[in-house]
Design brief:
The complex is a heterodimer.
Chain A lengths: L17 E9 L3 H12 L22 E4 L11 E4 L2 H6 L12 E2 L2 E7 L10 H13 L6 E2 L2 E3 L13 E4 H15 L2 E4 L4 E7 L2 E7 L2 E3 L5 E6 L3 E9 L6 H10 L10 E10 L10 E6 L7 E7 L3 E9 L9 H9 L2 H7 L3 E11 L10 E2 L2 E3 L15 H20 L6 H13 L2 H9 L10 H13 L13 H4 L3 H4 L6 H14 L4 H7 L15 H9 L11 E3 L2 H5 L5 H5 L5 E2 L8 E2 L9 H5 L3 E3 L2 E2 L1 E3 L12
Parallel strand pairs in A: 1-2, 1-14, 2-9, 5-16, 14-21
Antiparallel strand pairs in A: 3-8, 4-8, 5-7, 6-7, 10-11, 11-14, 12-13, 15-18, 15-19, 16-17, 17-18, 20-21, 22-27, 23-24, 25-26
Helix pairs in contact in A: 1-4, 1-8, 8-9
Chain B lengths: L4 E5 L2 E3 L7 E4 L2 E4 L7 E3 L1 H16 L4 E8 L1 H11 L6 E6 L8 H13 L9 E6 L10 H8 L5 E10 L5 E7 L3 E7 L4 E5 L11 H17 L1 E2 L29 H13 L2
Classes of the chains: A alpha+beta, B alpha/beta.
Chain lengths: 626, 269
């Protein structure tokens, strides 16, 4: 800090505060919901007396605090179709009507979408299949509006008996009950920067610094992040969470495990038009359009509201993979548009999905810590199910923790292995996760191989699988010139790149237009600009006084990067070409914290680490309907 | 002075940028999906709360209460954020927060709640609130509350309060023409409707949160339905403000032209 004459003024560094709790929890999502709901029921007796005692506040029940990065418990994004087995095990007799936007699944359809525009990049095999469908489709009862409804879909793809949920509303519903129970404390708007590690033991977490400039330097109102010491740290901060990734870095992944499969899930919540007669509980799963690699979905909630979205996977080898543009083309597909035309965007958001599943499972426990949820490898990549498995893993950990608390055993790696990991290994989460472990490997060789591989893995219960072991995303992505070879001359790509850099824009819109994708006919209701989606849909905000959480580690590496996929993939246009065209510029006030930049950086530094650091940060979506 | 008893009255409003849509409910107009909309502490009341906490911190023996009238579940959500900011004790009243209530009813409910706070002492009492509200900007609620509490020293548009050595309070109050008026009041009881004050939003402090939460949940559990929104008040019409977002993609427009359009757009209202 300096005075008006520029002289350095020495100001005392504020002391870093610390406090002790029994259990510190990181991230509030379905896994943490399952953990805290199950745990809180066992902390007190029916008469209100503590069933187990706190180690830090004798005579009291254990002190349990949960810190959530987002500004509200419901501000994550993930509308889901779930079989809800784990959720129903916790809430027997669950009445879906008590949860806003929840309903029972009534109809499921799986659809192959043809390309009505002719702009998507399809293999020769797929083009031949499309021609056949178009030629004979009129004779089939399952073909209409450039879509073929599959007359049969294997059981593992169905969510029969399950629920359509808005995870935002579900999280709020769970959080309300937890808070009302008074056994645990939930603190949104409080990012956790890192685990506290003493030797090989995790002894708590450190919260982010507040009152700092964008670069993290102390600024007005500086308050160093507090150290929260705990006997047990429960980590459920999702696939791009700072604490989980720090643990992976510190303790390493188990032999043969890695996180190389990802996807961006992006969705809109839409007020359906009056003329739409789709009943609530209707579910579509689609593939084939806007690109063969992009999967889509539509779920109908109560009250004439639908969630519509796409998944853009890491094995879609386009360096130009702007999810928002693809989402806009997706909703305009004739089969989807027939239901959405005249609708209005209520909400919008995006998140990264860890799609390595069981193969991405980290060390689940260690001295003083345990991992649950998506970042612990619970997602079933064959059935496309994650919320239910995440919830179940949380409930399993809670049962184990209660067992250890009652037995007055410390939270050592051995004890957590016996109390939690053993429960998980014996459960359906593990059994089905093993079946799914290699189910998607075929996509490494293309969509058709991938679909065949999924079918094979599903039919043989994982005994037979197709395809090679996945490679890191940065090893798959080629150059923009290579991707558009035969469609856009190299010199024209260079010209477009130069023009976009001068305008501070990503390349996606210009290149896709040149490749044959039509302009989006904005209607100001459902088809709105990307920036309007941030404001009208996501209500994206960022409080001041926090450091930028997206950091380009080595500027020289960005300078020499030709593809800059981080700019193209950014779900919120928060990453844009820098003023000099080298290092991209990051605007924290637009970021939705999807984390896609982390796994889309093509510049590897060391091992599978890339040139983008994605740290704990504040702000993001302020919509609770996703 | 052995400290102030500062009662801040402040409710919740929809988080900024939310899409608000009035619809007709069983007892009159309500906001569509109000319970699904994220909420925040009314920003005007927020200034009052942070100023109250600042005054209490500087005056030993002081205590801050936050009296909040809103849907219990939504108040609970908001307290998870506000509870980390500054120390206070919550007094919760369960009722609508959508703004479609009569200022007299709201003030009556708040006055009853203030009077019912155990140990409240008029000789130490300062009632704070926002001089405006993001949803209940009737411009009268706080004044009526003061009258019901028989507090006649009232100040609106306050930006600063400074206790004096003799026990009096010097108050900086906004007046017309962008000016401030300095007033001195002999001491409590007084009612202050805050403008923005001068304090930044406090940082989140987990220790403050843990201390506050011990009282917040019991207060919410004890909260009773407030008698608001049930009277004879009838709304003949409810409309959204005219200014709504308009999206238009324009390329290469000169900045002077952009400025002219913005001025024209603002002038429509």
């Amino acid at each position: 800090m300096s005075n008006e004459n520029g002289a350095i003024i020495s100001t005392p560094e504020p002391e870093r505060q610390s406090m002790e709790v029994d259990i510190a929890c990181v991230g509030f999502g379905p896994a943490m919901g399952g953990f805290l709901t199950t745990l809180s029921r066992g902390l007190s007796n029916a008469d209100g007396t503590p069933a187990v005692e706190s180690a830090v506040s004798p005579g009291m029940p254990p002190q349990v605090v949960c810190y959530e990065r987002a500004d509200g418990l419901g501000f994550g994004v993930s509308g889901v179709v779930t079989r809800a087995r784990g959720i129903r095990a916790t809430f027997p007799g669950l009445d879906a009507s008590q949860i806003p936007m929840a309903t029972a699944i009534k109809h499921e359809r799986v659809l192959y979408l043809l390309d009505p525009i002719g702009a998507s990049r399809r293999s020769a095999a797929l083009r031949a299949a499309d021609l056949g469908i178009k030629a004979w489709g009129r004779l089939l009862p399952w073909y209409r509006d450039h879509a073929l409804e599959l007359p049969y879909a294997p059981a593992f793809l169905h969510k029969k008996g399950g629920l359509v949920l808005s995870i935002g509303q579900f999280n709020q519903w769970v959080g309300e009950q937890l808070m009302a129970g008074g056994q645990v404390q939930l603190w949104p708007g409080m990012p956790v920067s890192q685990p506290l590690v003493d030797g090989d033991k995790v002894v708590g977490v450190r919260l982010v610094d507040q009152g700092v400039a964008k670069n993290g330097a102390p600024d007005a109102g500086y308050m160093p992040g507090m150290d929260v010491k705990a006997q047990l740290t429960v980590v459920a901060d999702g696939p791009v969470g700072a604490v989980g990734r720090a643990l992976d870095e510190r303790f390493g992944m188990p032999e043969g495990h890695h996180v190389r499969e990802w996807a961006v899930g992006m969705k809109m919540v839409v007020d359906l038009p009056e003329i739409c007669t789709l009943p609530e509980g209707t579910v579509f799963h689609t593939f084939g359009y806007p690109e063969p690699e992009i999967f889509g979905f539509m779920y109908v909630h109560p009250g004439r509201v639908a969630s519509v979205g796409i998944f853009v996977p890491s094995w879609f080898d386009s360096p130009i993979r702007t999810s928002y543009l693809y989402l806009q083309h997706y909703v305009q597909h004739p089969y989807v548009w027939q239901y959405l035309k005249g609708g209005k965007m209520r909400s919008w958001g995006a998140k990264s999905l860890q799609e390595s599943g069981k193969r991405g499972e980290p060390r689940l426990v260690g001295d003083g810590f345990a991992r649950i949820g998506e970042s612990s490898g619970t997602t079933n990549v064959l059935t496309g199910s994650g919320v239910d498995e995440a919830w179940a893993s949380g409930a399993q950990l809670a049962e184990g923790v209660l067992e250890l608390l009652h037995a007055k055993k410390p939270f050592t790696r051995e004890n957590l292995e016996a109390a939690y990991v053993a429960r998980r290994r014996a459960s359906w989460v593990e059994e089905e996760g093993l079946v799914a472990e290699k189910a998607r490997d075929g996509f490494g060789r293309g969509v058709v191989t991938g679909l065949l591989g999924m079918a094979l893995s599903g039919m043989t219960k994982g005994m037979l699988n197709l395809g090679p072991e996945p490679v890191p995303p940065h090893e798959r992505l080629g150059s923009i010139e290579g991707y558009y070879q035969g469609k856009i001359p190299t010199a024209e790509v260079a010209r477009i790149r130069d023009e976009c850099r001068k305008k501070g824009q990503s390349l996606a819109a210009a290149l896709m237009r040149r490749a044959g994708w039509p302009d989006i006919p904005y209607d100001g209701q459902l088809l709105v600009t990307h920036q309007d989606a941030l404001l009208v849909g996501g209500k994206v905000q960022a409080p001041g006084g926090y450091a930028d959480h997206v950091v380009f580690l080595q500027p020289a590496v960005c300078e020499s990067c030709g593809s800059k996929t981080c700019i193209e993939i950014c779900s919120a246009q928060a990453i844009a070409p820098g003023e000099t065209g080298g290092v991209p510029a990051f605007d924290r006030e637009k970021c939705v914290h999807c984390g896609a930049c982390l796994w889309n950086c093509t510049q590897a530094l060391e091992g599978e680490t890339t040139n983008i650091a994605f740290r704990a940060g504040a702000g993001g979506l302020h919509s609770a309907e996703n | 002075m052995s400290g102030y008893q500062i009662v801040v009255c402040g409710s919740i409003v929809p988080d900024p940028l939310q899409t608000l849509e009035p619809v007709t409910g069983p007892s009159g107009p309500v906001l569509k999906n109000e319970l699904m909309l994220p909420a925040v502490l009314d920003p005007w009341a927020g200034h009052a709360l942070y100023e109250a906490a600042n005054l209490a911190a500087k005056t030993p023996g002081s205590k801050v209460w936050l009296v909040s009238l809103g849907p219990k579940a939504k108040v609970q959500q908001v307290m998870m954020a506000v509870g980390q900011k500054v120390p206070f004790e919550l007094v919760a009243l369960d009722g609508p927060a959508g703004g479609f209530v009569d200022a007299h009813e709201t003030a009556a409910a708040l006055a009853d709640a203030v009077k019912a706070i155990p140990g409240i002492d008029r000789t130490k009492l300062l009632v704070f609130g926002g001089w405006e509200s993001a949803s209940r900007g009737a411009g009268a609620t706080l004044q009526i509350l003061g009258e019901r509490l028989e507090i006649h020293d009232q100040f609106q548009g306050v930006d600063q309060i400074a206790p004096q050595a003799d026990g009096s309070l010097e108050i900086l109050e906004r007046v017309e023409g962008g000016q401030h008026q300095i007033s001195v009041v002999a001491g409590p009881p007084a009612l202050l409707g805050w403008a923005t004050g001068n304090l930044p939003e406090p940082r989140n402090n987990p220790q403050v949160g843990m201390a506050n939460m011990r009282g917040i949940m019991p207060a919410l559990q004890k909260s009773k339905p407030a008698k608001v929104g049930t009277g004879d008040l009838q709304y003949l019409a409810v409309t959204l403000p005219k200014a709504q977002r308009e999206t238009r993609v324009v390329k290469n427009m000169p900045t002077d032209e952009i400025a002219r359009e913005i001025v024209e757009w603002i002038s429509k209202d």
